[in-house]
Amino acid sequence: MSLSYNSWFFKIYCNIFAKKIGEDNYGNNYFEKKRSSRKNNFRKRRFVIYKGNVEASKIPQEWNAWLHHMTNDIPNNNEEKPLWMKEHVPNLTGTPFAYEYKDKKDSTKIKNVYSVWKPKKN
Prior knowledge:
Helices cover 18% and strands 18% of the residues. It is α+β, with helices and mostly antiparallel strands. The chain has a domain at 3-67. Strand 1 and strand 2 form a beta hairpin. The termini are far apart. The mean pLDDT is 79.
C-alpha cells in the first residue's frame, strides 16, 4: 500500500462520511464528521487534508483553534486583520528556506562581543 493509495482512500472517506467546512489560504481543506461519537466526548470529529506536504505548522491559528474545538466559529479568510498582525508562515526548519545563522566576526574590531558556541573536544 503506498501513501498515494491511502490519501485517495481518505479523500473518498471524507466525501462520504464528512462534510467540507472550508479551505484556508494555503489550500488545506477542513472537514467535520457528520456524526458525533462517544470516543470524542460526543463532539463531531474535525480534521484537515493538507495540500502538498503534511506539515502541522501549515495550519493558521484560526483554523487550529477550530480543529481543537476551542471555538465553533468557522474562520473567514476574507476577514480584515489588524495592521500589526503578520501573515502566518509555516515552520521552515529543515527546508532550503530555513534561517541560517552567520557569524559576523569583523577582523577590524578589537573585541568580538558575539561568538558561536563550540563544545570542547576531549
